[in-house]
Amino acid sequence: MFKLKTVLVLALAALLVLSSFTPALATIDTSLIDKGLEKFNELSPSTQKEAIDLLKTYFKSSGTLEVLKQDLPSALKIVLGDDYEAQLEDKGLSVSRLKSQVDELKSWSYEDRMAIIDKIQSGDSEGIADLVEKYKNIEAPSDPSGGSGTAGSSTSSPASEKEQETDTGQEPTPAAAFTDITNHWAKTQIQYIAEKGIIQGKASGIFAPEDSVTRAEFTAMMVRLLQPEVSEETVIPFLDVAETDWFYETVKTAYAANLAKGKGDLFDPEGKITREEMTVLVARAAALKGKSVSIDTAEIDQLLLPFKDKEEISDWAKTETAVALKLGLVRGTTAELFQPKANATRAEAAVIIYNLYGVLNGESDTMTE
């Protein structure tokens, strides 16, 4: 019970931060940030550490954020007292608004959700305000259990899905609005594939090309491109994918199409996808659409030979990596390095999706990384 109360105190600190933006004032209310930081600083160092660890669990995914919403009234009472509703009203807030702020957290990147915890821990109020400002105009993700843009839909092409979720479950941003790719090496590929509705932004005007890609995000890109059909009777075995998660239908579709196999009974949706994992997925996608190539052991060895780190490629990934290389879907980070265990960036994901789109549509002007 003590640990629960501890994490709820810290959870409220984060929630007060997120609720500090009030549309009517269009400003950041730093008094709420200060209130959250004050409560955190009252904890002992060991309790602070426990609270940080537990809060990171709360912030891990959409499903765990739903649990946080359920615990919110208890947190409010612990931090503000029995008259918490009146105190919130004085700030123009309510319990329901705070719960909506939890929903808005689902539109944040995983990296930024972790970043705000770090900033609370270090007392960086300016950094906290900057993060809140970054997302203040982003709408919360739509209900993943229904509505338009679900992963299993096969009634329209990616380009015509006007209400698809973004790579993190929010509303899409037009490619032309991305302000952070102007001078980026992958600008052409990012814009091309974003205009197809296959890969999308993380926030208003933000593509974040150098951010890592989670397994759920890349799976969403693949499903948008391929649009495989899925039976409603499909049951996924992953314990870490809940029906309330924005990526539930995406993972279900990918699993049914044999694109995503998970890691035993876990999918690890928030885990960062590696270059070899991403490469295997696009090779499988090409095979699913009848665009793969035959390859024998000798050719596998020859295709991997240029890479000094070829032995770092997992045995289960070598054949499909060689296939992807032969198809022109991917290449090394340099002429001599493949870096199979490196975390893929969103720019790399855009390029490999661009290349796959070209292969599937008979276009030869692929632009590999």
UniProtKB/TrEMBL annotation:
Residues annotated as domain SLH: 173-236, 237-296, 304-367
Signal peptide boundaries: 1-26
Region (Disordered): 138-175
Record keyword Repeat present: yes
Keywords: Repeat, Signal
Keyword presence, Repeat: yes
PROSITE patterns, sorted: SLH
Biased composition (Low complexity): 140-159
InterPro entries: Cell_Envelope_Struct_Comp (IPR051465), SLH_dom (IPR001119)
Transmembrane spans: none
PANTHER family documented for this protein: OUTER MEMBRANE PROTEIN ALPHA-RELATED, S-LAYER PROTEIN _ PEPTIDOGLYCAN ENDO-BETA-N-ACETYLGLUCOSAMINIDASE
Protein name stated in the entry: S-layer homology domain-containing protein
Source lineage: Bacteria, Bacillati, Bacillota, Clostridia, Thermosediminibacterales
